[in-house]
Design brief:
This protein has helices spanning about 10-25, 45-50, 55-60, 100-110, 150-160, 180-185, 190-205; strands spanning about 1-5, 30-35, 40, 60-65, 75, 80-85, 115, 120-125, 125-130, 130-135, 140-145. With about 210 residues, the chain is an alpha+beta fold.
Length: about 210
């Protein structure tokens, strides 16, 4: 498994990179990156039902649709994204425990993390990471967020859509969330925590 930090922070570019790694490479990659403020919407969702489009437009928050299912998530410079892009084996992505190395890394860094029923990552009653998956013919993508120092007020406002417009779209599942930095009572910058995460994951896979 090659662990890579992508320095680019464009949500459109990073969604495209995940898709490119899924369709055009054969090696296993764990991609880590940080996006500018944005909302990433699941493949089967109705944007207006999940996102306050006016709020996002007024605050320069980009709205991007990804290739995987699941619910809408908010990204900013305090959020760390991880994406496992690997060859498919006998167990499809939804059955493989891709959260295990992330949980191990968080526990090593002092967070009492565990995997929830929907393959989210939790610390006690709070969700700190949402995940989603996409399976192609020979490859699979499993990606998620890590709320490290995210602006939770903006997250809440950006993800307040109009449910009456949902139609047949998939609804996001609301949950209580908390930042990892608050759990750790840490002033460490997001980039420093990301580097520690990368170093642990490199040791995990070698």
């Amino acid at each position: 498994m090659q662990v890579i930090i992508n320095p680019y922070n464009s949500p459109t570019r990073n969604c495209a990179l995940e898709e490119q790694l899924l369709t055009e490479r054969q090696d296993d990659v764990l991609l880590l990156y940080i996006n500018v403020p944005s909302v990433i919407v699941g493949k089967y969702q109705t944007i207006e039902a999940e996102v306050d489009v006016d709020f996002c437009r007024e605050n320069g928050i980009e709205v991007v649709r990804r290739i995987s299912g699941g619910g809408a998530v908010y990204h900013d410079e305090g959020n760390i994204n991880y994406a496992f892009i690997v060859s498919k084996n006998s167990a499809p992505a939804l059955d493989r425990d891709f959260t295990a190395p992330i949980v191990a890394a968080l526990q090593h860094l002092g967070v009492n993390a565990s995997t929830g029923k929907r393959k989210e990552i939790r610390c006690g009653e709070y969700k700190i990471s949402g995940t989603a998956a996409h399976v192609s013919r020979g490859r699979q993508l499993f990606h998620g967020t890590l709320l490290y120092r995210t602006n939770l007020q903006r997250l809440q406002k950006a993800l307040q859509g109009n449910a009456s417009l949902r139609g047949k779209g998939i609804a996001s599942v609301p949950d209580r969330v908390k930042n990892i930095a608050d759990i750790l009572q840490s002033n460490e910058p997001t980039e420093a925590f990301l580097q520690k995460l990368k170093e642990f994951l490199e040791r995990y896979y070698h």
